[in-house]
Amino acid sequence: MFTAIDELLRPFYTHLTAADQCYFLREYTSGRGFAHSETNRLILNLKKAPDRRGLMEWRYKERAVEQVAREFRASFNLPRLRTVTLVPMPPSKRKDDPLYDDRMLQVLHAMDEEHQLDIRELLLLSESTTAAHASSTRPTVDALVANLGIDDAAAKPTPASIALIDDVITTGAHFVAAKRLLTIRFPGVAIRGFFVARRVFADETA
Amino acid sequence: MQQSALAFRDADDFVRGLSPFLEMGAYEWLWAQSGVTFEKLADRFRARPDALPSDFVPHDLARATARDVVATFAARGVQRFGLAINQTYEYPKALRDARHPVEMLYYLGSWNLVETNAIAVVGTRKPSPDVLTETAALVQTLVANEWTIVSGLAEGVDTQAHETALAAGGRTIAVIGTPISEAYPRANADLQRRIADAFLVVSQVPVLRYYQQAWMQNRSFFPERNITMSALTLGTVIVEASDRSGTLIQARAALQQGRKLFILDRCFHDPDRKWPHEYVRQGAIRVRDHAEIVEALRDVHRNR
After folding, report:
1. A6 and B85 in contact by Cβ < 8 A?
2. How far apart are CA A94 and CA A128, in angstroms?
3. Over pLDDT 70: what percentage of chain B?
4. Residue B88: phi, psi to the nearest 5?
5. Which residue of B has its CA nearest to A17?
6. Are B6 and A21 inside 8 Å of each other by CB?
7. What is the rounded average pLDDT of the residues B255-262?
8. Which one of A102, B30, B134, B259 counts the least CB within 10 Å of its CB?
9. B268 exposed, middle or buried (CB, 10 Å; 0-12, 13-18, 19+)?
10. Residue B193, class by beta-carbon neighbours within 10 Å (0-12 exposed, 13-18 middle, 19+ buried)?
11. CA dihedral in degrees (B273, B125, B235, B181; nearest 10)?
12. Are B19 and A24 in contact (CB under 8 A)?
């Protein structure tokens, strides 16, 4: 079952307002390694960089994709999900970058066992960026919007509602940027964010 | 209202989700009703295993109650706290082994410590110097073997267990019998703070109920937390306890939950004491050498 980022958790997310509907499954602890928790293992395996492809460890990434797909399936009302357009958040690298990693698209396809889901790569990245989790400086929402585009080829028919799918919500900036761009293109269409995990700090509630 | 933008338990929605604010308020509202016990609440959820607290409470009441909880905590200096709620992925399935499982826990600190290999060390609140010395030696052995030390922050053995774990550079979790906004005994407020800062403090105590009722009624929260402590750990070690000690609640819980129960040899020395022998008959392990505990637990390490 998903947990909503509601009035209790929203203070941790500077970019989110009460109008932003974001949900997560797990809690990923920042700055700690694989050994810290089951969720840390899952997320770090899911994010394993494409240059590890072909190595023995790559199977852990494939298993992480399958696990996340299973947990998403269990946390959505599947018959209702068929009317929703599922959009993976673009990864930090462009498709022509050797480090391009379409892990969330893989998750969505793994979820779609009955081939009845509307999965669309609506969002495209203009320029490759440093992965958010590996960078100390964070771009503004305006800069994130400026680096995003909509793939016209995937824009029709107009979605009834949109579910943005991503791995970790850290501050909410990427979600807010994507939502802003999509809202300009599809006014009035409800957009919600779904994440494998929210980022927490080990001492967040201490 | 913008809050209603989040739709919950709507059969037409494509999301299966919960709002922690709403569930906290609903859980606290259920607890604020007269005559509620962990057993009665657990019975309600047993009858409807997929239900959330908010399925039993009007949502406007749950939200108002949640605002009360937040204000109650804030007035006592707790601005941020964590919740572990049943049916989410961060709620440990092990908690369901309790006879009357709790639907929600409050915590301060790093929740993921519940995933580590954890063992409870508990015992009398009035220990002799020998008992304190043995508690320290036991905890040092367990810490040296990478075990997380779980105890109840009570005076005596519990305090010694936490302090020794901290001093030895180990991990420690306090499962307390008060809300996270209180410390009991008061003398342990600093210890509780240090454990929350570096590790984890857990409480199942409903906050509003606690502050509404008299101290005498709140006393039952202490033995209840021993049942949760057992469920959160792979085993319990009893260092020393009299025949009528609350520690024995945890001994029974450990056996009932299928956890390892260790009883230190000193508990067997009083010939009039019946409970150690009775629990050994039920599967507890009499421990003459602390290393036996580490050995006995070698095979029950969590699959990590």
Report:
1. no
2. 5
3. 95
4. -100, 165
5. B2
6. yes
7. 97
8. A102
9. middle
10. middle
11. 150
12. no
Residue positions counted in chain B? 304
For the question of an ipTM over 0.85, the answer is yes
- The closest CB to that of B16, out of A29, A75, A203, belongs to A75
Contact of B236 with B151, CB cutoff 8 Å: no
* C-alpha distance from B292 to closest chain A C-alpha (Å): 26
Measured in degrees and rounded to the nearest 5, phi and psi for residue B186 equal: -55, -35
Mean pLDDT across the stretch B178-201? 97
A124 - beta bridge partners? A149
Calculate how close chain A gets to B247, using CA atoms only, in Å.
28
**Identity of the residue in A9, A11, A18 whose CB atom sits nearest the CB atom of B3:** A18
Q: Per DSSP, which regions of A99-203 are E strands?
A: 118-119, 123-125, 148-150, 161-169, 190-200
pTM: 0.94
- The encoded tokens of residue A114 equal 């009955």
DSSP 8-class letter at A189:
-
**CA A175 and chain centroid, separation:** 8
**Chain A interface includes B8 (CB < 8 A):** yes
- In B, which residues are within 8 Å of A17 by CB distance? 2
Q: Place B8 in a pLDDT band, splitting at 50, 70 and 90.
A: low
